[in-house]
Amino acid sequence: MQTEVRPRRLLMPEDLRRPFRYATRRNPELRTRGGKIAVLADAMGKPLKPHQQYIADVATELNPPGSRLVFRYQLVIVAEPRQVGKTTLIRPVAVERCLARPGTQTFMTAQLGKDASARWEDLVLDVQASPVLGSAATVRRGKGDQRCTFPTSSFIAPFPPEVTALHGYSPPLIFVDEAWAFSAEQGADLMRAIRPAQITKTDRQLWIVSAAGTAESEWWNELVELGRASVDDPNSTIAYFEHSADPDADPYDPKTWEFHPGLDGLITIDDLEAEAKANPHADFLRGFLNLATKVRDKTVVDLEAWDALHAKQQTPPAPHATAYGYDVAIDSTWASVWGAWLDDAGTLQLHVERSEEGTDWLVPHLRELHTTGATICADDGGPARAVTAALGREGVPVTTLNGTESSTAWAAFKEDVKHARLAHDGSALLRRALELAVEKHRGDALALSRRHSLAPIDPLVAALVAAEVAR
C-alpha cells in the first residue's frame, strides 16, 4: 500500500498545548516515519492528537543512511495516564511497520494472555472498519492462532507474557501494554523472551506503554526512572514520554488536571471530576494523574501484627548487653541508630536510639556509644559502608552482615514478627519503613532492597541488624 505523506510543519515540545513533563526532544536533522503513521491513523478513523503525533515523530526517527540500526531509538517508553490514546497510537505504528517492509512480524502483549488478545482484537476491529485497510487484511481468530496479515506477508499477533512465547520468531517490533501490572520477576521473564527474539533485527524496536504503577510495579517503576534519566542523555537509545500531574498539587483541584492531554478532544474536565469521585484515592492518582502510588496489596510484614507488638518502652540494659545497628539512607539525607536486646523472658526488644537528618552526627555518636561497651553493627552495603570505614580508621570495631547474612537476618526478623517474638517502642519511622520497603531476590532468599523501596528504609535496616546481632 502506497501512502502520501501530507506536508506539515515540524512539531516540537513547545508547540504542545499541554507539555510533557518529560520527553525526548525531536531531532530536526533526522527523518521520521511519523508522517506515514499519521496518514494511517486517519485511514483507521482515529487521527492523531498533537501529543500522539509528537511521540510518533520522535519514536520513529531514523538513523542516517549507512547506520547499522535503522531506528534512532530501540526502546520506546510511553508513561501516560488513562484516556490519552496510548493504544490508539500503537495501532497505526504497528500497521505502518507491516506495510513498510514485507514479512515483518509484529507482536503485542499485556499483563495476561487474554489482555494481549483483547488489545489485538481492538486493533483488528479498527483495521477492518477502515475503508482503505479493511479489504487488505486477512484475520484469523483461532485460539492460539490469532493473526492479522497484510498483502506484504507481514502480520500482527498477540502473545502471552511468557519466557517461551516468542520461540521461533524474530519480530522487529514488539509492544508491551499496561506494564505497571508486571512484577519484577514477570518483567525479567518477559525481557528474557524479547531480547533473544529481536537480537538479529537491525530495525528492532520495543515499545513499553503504561500508566503509573503501585509499590509492587517494580519493573515499570525502574523503567520510568531509566526513561526520565535518558531525556538528558544525548547518546541514549531510549525515547521517553511522560505526562503527569504536579505531585505537590492538590489532586482534586481541577487546575491540577489541566496537564492531561486527553482534554484535547478525548475527555472533559467533567469526566475527570466523575472519575475522581468514583475511584479510590490511589487508583485516581495512578490512573488519571499518572502518579505512582506508595501503596501495595501486601507489605513486607503484616502491619496489623506489627502494631500488636508495640509495648511500653523498656529501659535498655547495660550498654554491653545492647547491640546498636546503624544505617544511612540511600540518598544520604538521613541516618538511623537502633538498639536491640533480649529481655529476661527471651523476647527481642527494639527501640529507636537516634534517627535524624544528615549523617555528620553519626560517626561521633557511634564512637561515643562504643566507649560505653556497646556492640556496634551494620549491614555491609549501601552508604553505611563509608561510615563503617570511618569508624575502622578510628579504631571502633563494627560487626557487619554480608549479603547472605542479611538475607538470613531478614527471614528471622519476619518470623519474629509472625510469631510475636519481639516487642518495639512504636516508632513511626520504623513502621513507615516497613510500609514502604520492597524485597528483592538474593539467590533463593529474599532480602531488603534499598534501591527499589519507595523511600529510604534506614530505620528498618538499622533495626534489622541490631536484632540479628542481639539474638
Give an account of the 3D structure.
The chain is an alpha/beta fold and 471 residues long. It is 34% helix and 18% strand. It has helices spanning 34-43, 50-59, 86-100, 113-129, 184-198, 218-230, 269-278, 281-288, 303-308, 362-371, 384-393, 403-418, 428-436, 458-470; strands spanning 22-23, 75-79, 105-109, 138-142, 145-149, 155-158, 173-176, 205-210, 238-242, 323-328, 334-342, 348-357, 375-379, 399-401, 422-424, 438-442, 445-449. Strands 1-9-2-8-7-3-6-5-4 form a 9-stranded mixed sheet, sandwiched between helices. A 6-stranded mixed sheet has the order 14-13-10-11-12-15, sandwiched between helices. It has a two-stranded antiparallel ribbon with strand order 16-17. The longest helix is centred in the first third of the chain and has 17 residues, at 113-129. It is elongated and about 85 Å long.
How many individual helices?
14
Structural class label: alpha/beta
Mean pLDDT: 92
Report the strand count. 17
Task: Please outline the major beta sheet.
Answer: 9 strands, mixed
Strand order of the largest sheet: 1-9-2-8-7-3-6-5-4
Shape: elongated
Low-confidence stretches: 1-7
Separation of termini? Answer: 73 Å
Residue share in helices? 25-40%
Computed CA radius of gyration, to the nearest angstrom = 27 Å
Task: Give the amount of beta strand, in percent.
Answer: 15-25%
